[in-house]
Design a protein that fits this description.
Layout lengths: L1 E3 L2 H13 L4 E6 L5 H13 L2 E6 L9 H6 L4 H11 L3 E3 L3 H4 L18 H4 L3 H16 L3 E5 L3 H14 L4 E5 L19 H6 L2 H12 L5 H13 L4 E10 L15 E9 L2 E8 L1
Parallel strand pairs: 1-4, 2-3, 2-5, 3-4, 5-6
Antiparallel strand pairs: 7-8, 8-9
Helix pairs in contact: 7-8, 10-11
Bound molecules: adenosine monophosphate.
């Protein structure tokens, strides 16, 4: 595996691969890699001749400076994991390399970016669109891999791809969970042992809600999930929305969507956890 730190090295390697007719798969990450990231890279390894994984904690998508400051950074361990999977290129740039000047672009992301994470974290999705569009331009991949853990993010990236006219395939990958059901996340290491022990209640509440969905209205189910999660000390649901899996717009009646998805954000202490489930 080659570690690349400059855009110049990256574009050279990618142009070389393209000129040989090789297919390129890109996995963007912010590092502190876990098995969820690993699953994306393994999938990219199967589908493509060349695999590029980026590790970059993108400042423009953090609306909370404390979250950016405390975001875990584990470059050495990340490189070992990527090497073991057979990643060809790890792109690990500095902030100055990605943003030689401030990125002032404002993307017209539309309704998919206005609800849930878009409403709670102003500017977050615009920052995601900024960095991912830069990566797409640098790498020019045939395919790019994203986890369904960040379900709304995939819809936002599809919208950005449409706006920018990128010719590539977005490959959504399933959520990887710990054995007790907690969705894997780089932020999980910030949970205290006590918080870590109660955090699986999030997925448990979502799974139970799927089991009883047939007998309940959308509103009743939303109440059930929020009450079940908030019954745990130290947990506070920020939102639970049941949305159409394509448009991300909240539904009021099951008839409104063929692919409803329940999306939740929970504060466990001061750690913000997100998860979702398909109905
Ligand atoms: P992050 O480093 O958190 O920005 O995540 C990088 C990519 O990994 C994103 O596409 C995430 O959706 C994906 N990802 C993060 N956690 C998981 C997980 N538990 N299962 C599957 N994909 C994940």
């Amino acid at each position: 595996m080659k570690v690349l730190r400059t855009v110049r090295e990256l574009t050279e390697a990618m142009n070389d691969a393209r000129s040989k007719g090789l297919t390129i798969g890109l996995v963007p990450t912010m590092g502190a890699l876990h098995q969820g990231h690993v699953s994306l890279m393994k999938r990219a390894r199967i589908d493509n001749d060349v695999v590029v994984a980026s590790v970059f904690v993108n400042p423009t998508q953090f609306n909370n400076p404390e979250d950016l400051r405390t975001y875990p950074r584990t470059e050495e361990a990340d490189c070992e994991k990527m090497e073991a999977i057979g990643v060809d290129y790890a792109f690990i740039p500095s902030v100055e390399e990605v943003y030689p000047e401030p990125d002032t672009r404002v993307f017209d992301l539309g309704p998919v970016a206005e609800v849930m994470e878009g409403a709670m974290r102003p500017g977050h999705f615009n920052g995601v669109a900024q960095v991912v569009s830069k990566l797409f331009r640098m790498v020019n991949p045939h395919r790019a891999y994203f986890g369904e853990k960040d379900f709304q993010q995939i819809a936002v990236i599809r919208r950005m791809v449409e706006l920018e006219g990128f010719d590539l395939e977005i490959v959504p990958c399933p959520i990887l969970r710990e054995e007790d059901g907690l969705a894997m996340s780089s932020r999980n290491v910030r949970l205290t042992p006590e918080q870590r022990a109660i955090a699986p209640a999030i997925h448990r509440a979502l799974s139970e809600s799927v089991a009883i969905a047939g007998e309940k209205s959308v509103e009743e189910l939303k109440d059930f999930v929020v009450k079940t999660i908030d019954a745990n000390p130290q947990m506070r649901t920020e939102y639970y929305e049941i949305v159409d899996g394509k448009t991300m717009q909240p539904i009021r009646d099951w008839k409104e969507s063929e692919c409803p998805v329940g999306c939740v954000t929970v504060y466990c202490g001061d750690v913000r956890l997100i998860d979702n489930i398909k109905y």
